[in-house]
Design brief:
Blueprint (H helix, E strand, L loop, with lengths): L1 H31 L19 E10 L2 E8 L5 E5 L7 E2 L4 H6 L3 E6 L2 E7 L14 E7 L7 E9 L1 E5 L4 E6 L2 E6 L17 H4 L9
Antiparallel strand pairs: 1-2, 2-3, 3-4, 5-6, 6-7, 7-8, 9-10, 10-11
Length: about 210
């Protein structure tokens, strides 16, 4: 009987110690577990009334964000209010804006855009027989209603110069140059004059570098 007790008691003590030492390990594994993160989630779907083309652009105005979705065959753009990305709203558009945005749309400033559309019956051909385009300069100050500022037909080449707020284009009437307003954030920074030993000791030194 004494031998039986001597055998059982040490075995129970060893088993208890084993449970105590293993418990923290199990808890540590549980605390290190993390929920699975999803890198992308679908938040909205909007059925569009027209077949879509290959171009989209974003335009922001007064806290609103508008998405321009090109229609098939470059027949203008559908305008969607995506200010709340999870609740996109298709805006109604007038016939004028449909015509104004027909073609490839390029934003050159927050308020100015260029639309170039191939001409079905070109009035002018380049030396390499490239077809001409009709180019419109658009006023985008009201993104819901783009308006045509200037229109040129038979355009053979087009070059926007965003650094100086200029647009160059050519047609059978020659070279045309347009200037557009750029917001202050797009204006090139003026170079500061160099600092010298005299400006360092001035009470009110000028702005220099």
């Amino acid at each position: 009987m004494q031998n039986f007790r001597r055998t059982i008691v040490p075995s129970l003590i060893f088993a208890g110690l084993a449970m105590i030492t293993e418990a923290p390990v199990a808890r540590a594994k549980d605390s290190s577990a993390r929920p699975t993160e999803v890198p992308a989630t679908l938040i909205a779907h909007l059925v569009l009334p027209q077949a879509t083309g290959s171009q989209m652009l974003l335009q922001k105005d007064n806290g609103k964000t508008y998405l321009y979705v090109q229609q098939a065959l470059k027949q203008g753009f559908m305008i969607v209010d995506v200010t709340k990305a999870d609740k996109p709203t298709l805006l109604r558009r007038t016939a004028e804006s449909n015509q104004a945005t027909a073609g490839n749309l390029e934003m050159v400033s927050p308020d100015v855009a260029i639309v170039a559309a191939p001409e079905k019956k070109p009035t002018t051909l380049t030396s390499s027989n490239h077809p001409t385009e009709t180019v419109r300069i658009l006023d985008m100050s009201d993104p819901r209603n783009p308006k045509t500022l200037e229109e040129f037909t038979g355009v053979t080449s087009l070059l926007p110069d965003g650094g100086h707020g200029l647009i160059y284009l050519t047609n059978n009437q020659g070279l045309w140059i347009l200037r557009y307003h750029r917001p202050p954030s797009l204006e090139p920074a003026k170079k500061k004059p160099p600092c010298d030993s005299y400006t360092a000791i001035m009470a009110m030194p000028p702005d220099c570098q």
